[in-house]
Amino acid sequence: MAVYEVWAPHAASRVTVEVSGGSHELARLAGRDGWWGGVAPAGDYAFRLDGGPPLPDPRSARQPHGPDGPSRPVDHAAFPWTATGWRGRPLPGSVVYELHVGTFTTRGTFDAAAERLDHLVELGVDFVELMPVCPFPGRHGWGYDGVSPWAVHEPYGGPDGLKRFVDAAHGRGLGVILDVVHNHLGPSGNHLPRYGPYFTDRHHTPWGAAVNLDAPGSDEVRAYLIGSALAWLRDYRIDGLRLDAVHALIDHRAVHFLEELSGEVDKLAVATNRPLFLVAESDLNTPRTTTPREAGGQGIDAQWSDDFHHALHCALTGESHGYYGDFARAPLAALAKSLRHGYFHDGTWSTFRGRRHGRPFTPTGAGHRLLGYLQTHDQIGNRALGDRISTTLPTGRLACGAALVLTSPFTPMLFMGEEWGAATPWQYFTDHTDPGLAEAVRQGRRREFTDHGWAAEAVPDPQEPATLLRSVLDWTEPHRAPHAELLDWYRQLLRLRRELPELGDPDLGAVRVEFDEAAGWLVVHRGPYRVAVNLGAGEAAVPLGGPGRELVAAFGAALVSGDRVRLGGDSVALVAV
Known about the structure:
The protein is of the alpha/beta class. It has 15 helices and 25 strands. It has helices at residues 101-104, 110-114, 117-123, 158-171, 192-195, 218-235, 257-272, 306-317, 325-328, 331-341, 377-381, 395-406, 435-450, 465-470, 483-499, and strands at residues 2-7, 15-19, 22-28, 35-40, 45-49, 96-99, 127-130, 175-180, 199-205, 208-211, 240-243, 277-280, 302-304, 348-350, 355-357, 370-373, 411-415, 512-516, 521-526, 529-534, 540-543, 550-555, 558-561, 564-567, 571-576. The chain has an eight-stranded parallel beta barrel with strand order 6-7-8-11-12-13-16-17, surrounded by four helices. It has a five-stranded antiparallel β-sheet with strand order 1-4-3-2-5, with no helix packed on it. The termini are far apart. The relative contact order is 0.09.
């Protein structure tokens, strides 16, 4: 026999659990408003509210037949963990590698991804960040339309598949971060509104009604989301969570949801005796996100830094459309400001937003609280063709970008395949089983980009299987030119970051940057080292601020001469002075 409990305040008079064809009545639980519970045989199960259709358990740990099917219990204590010596690792001082399970390999499973972990060890990264793995309709998708936020997508390998991946990573000394989505659920397979007030019309987001974090019933909703987050960290031994689009978590309560969540994660870290952390995606440019709770902040350990990305992207590509316009007027100046101060928009005017945006990032010594990157799933997949910059830029220019990321005061992050300049795109793909939703997504994607001048037929169809197949990494590329040369450069930079502590120093106040916008060169002072890049077409003599002692590493033509380093176009050098 098994115990079944469910929060279903919307049920007027009756809740039953259906197990193996039998129906079993649940009773209201005394002292627990809206909760129903009882005992019934163990097995695949579903709940019925007031005689309605069978629904999956909101706290289901497994959905073997997809988001709409019955739930299946999981005994987390039964998994045979082997990496029992793993005690975690802190985020500061580490390098993160973002990957999507479904396109990291042709098989698209946790087990197949685990077979490639040795590549990441040899590369020199410290954490693997998995894009969302909760169930969603169909077989493949980005994961941000997931439902059942306590469960694991079955085609990837289900709960045990995720545990095998985490175990394999820990056995190789790699930590694991999981991307989780609390700001919305997908449009198909979301049964939560039938159970209770999980959403509220008080606030609205790009996905419709907001998750209920501050309206009546929000205590249980917050507990539901926090319980899910803790389950990943506890039951799956995940080391940290990346929180998607936290600016869409609208909460006017005195204690913000993020503050409450960070407090509970810290308690679990103490209980399990290993470092656990949270990383936020936020476009608010407020230091409150990563300020400790004791100082009045929300206590999130780090956040993605789109300002640094946008400035670097503009400097490398010259693009100026959309939000890049704020950075493209003087990209090297924008890049220098981001490196020195964390945020570019720190109360400055944003043409894209038509208003002032952000406030200064503080304290200056906490650069590790910002993740810096050249590419992410968003910055590739949200383009019309899902094209990587590696398909349009010369290898030397990519090497310049890599050096600026991997010697920055931030916590560096790479996106899968970036390290070898992957020629494969990473496009927006879906596998919606609802024909109406599939067509709406297809037309919406085309409409979005035709409004920006693209021909409708040029925009890949998200539902077309070829769109997915084009996005799968080609693992023959790292072994051939020019990809192998770039991969060696990434490995060298990651080794140097480990060996030379000054290259990873998170103190923004210690960073000095000189540049010549017209000539196209920039040099970053990192203690006794200089990271000099020349993005101009011709040779440049880049000042080092002192006599150069040694050329530590270079990609492209580089020669140290006195207090300058002579660089060819699209070249980069690390020089000791």
